[in-house]
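Hi all, posting the design record for the shared folder.

TITLE: backbone redesign
STEP: 1 of 1
STRUCTURE INPUT:
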């Protein structure tokens, strides 16, 4: 184990989580990893795969991203943000639904887009991009339904029971939407190099990733005005994930994917959130130290 890997492993241990990480220099291909090929539950991180598939189908002329959709107040997928917090009928474009899906991880917006795109198209997109360990099995409504079913009659309270967690389909990468840290950084590198679609669509995807509102995970490791962080989080009971790209003013671009699982079932664990940024910073600093003409720190 390298010194960098040991530092990352220690950071995870100090935060009382198990972690899996991959980081790469988008331009040179240099990489750092800790169990980077281990299958992991993506949770809402999989919305990035949906976003890429949406833009690929739009580029093919299957639909116009300015197309308007109607969202009635009834029958919505559960969610605490975006459309899930709204009480009245909503009319919006597909691209604005994509904004809600990425910026506040809106489950309703994601499932509306999945109705247009289709799970099969999402899986074709990831396969074509070489993400051989990435697969979407459930819509986000279906994923949440497995939580309700597996939790049993005690409902959300049962999710605080470690024994209940062992039977949750949503926490088993063999039975739910999944990927690996390396697959996710490969996807991000494709997006930043305009290899996942046309340059216009690539720019639109990067813009949405830059509008995510959560600063407490990946971005917490890079608290500098001149360093830009764009990413997508994913959360389920005991799981806290984020994938994203860190861009430095000297041109350095680094794709990072961090997936964690905590033994503690509490919904609020600041150290478990923050270690995503800490581990990412360790990895990126190592890549910058190894790169020519780039400084090791900010």
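Okay, here is what came back for every position:
SEQUENCE:
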């Amino acid at each position: 184990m390298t010194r960098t890997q040991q530092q990352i492993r220690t950071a995870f241990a100090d935060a009382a989580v198990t972690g899996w990480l991959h980081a790469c220099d988008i331009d040179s291909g240099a990489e750092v990893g800790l169990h980077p090929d281990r299958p992991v539950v993506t949770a809402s991180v999989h919305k990035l795969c949906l976003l890429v598939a949406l833009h690929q189908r739009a580029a093919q002329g299957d639909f116009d991203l300015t197309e308007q959709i109607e969202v009635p107040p009834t029958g919505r997928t559960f969610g605490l943000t975006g459309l899930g917090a709204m009480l009245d009928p909503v009319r919006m474009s597909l691209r604005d639904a994509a904004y809600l899906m990425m910026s506040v991880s809106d489950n309703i917006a994601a499932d509306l887009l999945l109705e247009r795109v289709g799970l099969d198209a999402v899986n074709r997109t990831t396969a074509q991009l070489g993400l051989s360990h990435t697969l979407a099995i459930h819509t986000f409504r279906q994923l949440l339904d497995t939580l309700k079913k597996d939790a049993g009659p005690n409902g959300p309270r049962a999710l605080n029971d470690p024994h209940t967690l062992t039977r949750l389909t949503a926490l088993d990468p063999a039975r739910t939407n999944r990927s690996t840290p390396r697959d996710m950084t490969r996807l991000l590198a494709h997006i930043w190099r305009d290899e996942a679609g046309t340059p216009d669509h690539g720019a639109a995807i990067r813009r949405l990733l830059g509008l995510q509102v959560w600063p407490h995970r990946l971005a917490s490791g890079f608290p500098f005005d001149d360093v830009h962080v764009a990413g997508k989080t994913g959360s389920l009971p005991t799981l806290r994930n984020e994938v994203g790209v860190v861009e430095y003013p000297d041109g350095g671009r680094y794709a990072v994917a961090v997936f964690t699982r905590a033994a503690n079932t509490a919904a609020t664990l600041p150290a478990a959130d923050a270690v995503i940024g800490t581990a990412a910073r360790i990895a990126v600093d190592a890549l910058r130290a190894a790169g020519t003409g780039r400084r090791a720190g900010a």
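COMMENT: The longest strand covers residues 253-262.
Let me know if anyone wants the other runs.
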